[in-house]
Amino acid sequence: MRTLSSQVLDHAGKSVVLRGWLHKKRAMGALMFVVLRDRGGLIQIVVKDEAEQEKLRGMQVGTVLEVTGKVKAEPRATGGAEIHEPSLAVLVPVEAEPPIEIDKPIDHTPDNLDTLFEHRVVNLRNLDEQRIFRVREALIGSIRNFLSQNEFVEIQTPKLIAGATEGGAEVFKLKYFDQEATLAQSPQFYKQIMVGAFERVFEIGPAFRAEPSLTTRHLAETTMLDIEMGFIDGHEDVLKMTEQLVYSVLTSVYKDSKDDLEKLKAPELKLKKEFPRYTVAQVHEMFTKGTGQDTTKEKDLIPAEERWICDYSVKEHGCEAVFVSEFPVEAMKFYHMVNPDNPKTV
Question: Directed axis angle between helix 280-291 and helix 303-317, to 10°?
Answer without folding.
Answer: 90
